[in-house]
């Protein structure tokens, strides 16, 4: 099943910002604190996979999909706050990163390879 991969809508971004504002949490959301929170939430994506084997991954995803979705939502909310506060346009940042990666990882050298660009 394919998922829709749109960026956060303006309406949803406003809901996130309003949620924070109503709780007076802006003062806690320094760039360092938000970056730390993003890292912490991202690490929680690994929790269901602890001590699993590669062959277990499909079943874990199936059984823990809601839990994984909640962690991804936490990460997306924090990234939305971080990019808002630092005035970073996420769409532009992603486009620029894809351009940079296409230079680092040319198809003819990187196709089917998991090597880092410095080792291609």
Explained architecture:
- The chain has 120 residues and is mostly helical.
- The chain folds into two domains: 10-88, MazG-like (Helix Hairpins), CATH 1.10.287.1080; 89-120, no CATH class.
- It is 62% helix and 0% strand.
- It has helices at residues 10-22, 31-44, 57-63, 65-85, 90-104, 107-110.
- α2 runs antiparallel to α4 (65-85).
- It is globular and about 50 Å long.
- 2% of the residues are buried.
**Number of helical regions:** 6
Task: Report mean pLDDT, rounded to a whole number.
Answer: 93
CATH class division of the largest domain:
Mainly Alpha
Strand content: under 5%
Q: What's the order of the H and E elements? A: HHHHHH
CATH architecture of the largest domain: Orthogonal Bundle
CATH topology of the largest domain: Helix Hairpins
Amino- and carboxy-terminal Cα gap: 33 Å
| Number of distinct beta strands | 0
Structural class: mainly alpha
Write out the CATH superfamily name of the largest domain.
Answer: MazG-like
The biggest sheet amounts to: none
Mass-distribution shape: globular
Instruction: Determine the fraction of residues in helical runs and give it as a percent range.
Output: 55-70%
Question: Which segments are poorly predicted (pLDDT under 50) over 5 or more consecutive residues?
Answer: none
Work out the radius of gyration.
18 Å
When the domains are counted, the total is 2
């Amino acid at each position: 099943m394919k998922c829709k991969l749109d960026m956060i809508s303006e309406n949803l971004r406003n809901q996130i910002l309003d949620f924070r504002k109503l709780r007076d949490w802006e003062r806690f959301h320094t760039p360092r604190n938000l970056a730390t929170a993003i890292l912490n939430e991202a690490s929680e994506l690994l929790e269901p996979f602890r001590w699993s084997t590669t062959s277990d991954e499909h079943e874990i995803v199936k059984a823990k999909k809601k839990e994984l979705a909640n962690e991804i939502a936490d990460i997306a909310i924090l990234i939305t706050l971080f990019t808002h506060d630092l005035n970073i346009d996420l769409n532009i940042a992603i486009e620029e990163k894809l351009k940079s990666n296409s230079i680092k990882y040319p198809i003819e050298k990187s196709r089917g390879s998991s090597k880092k660009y410095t080792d291609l």
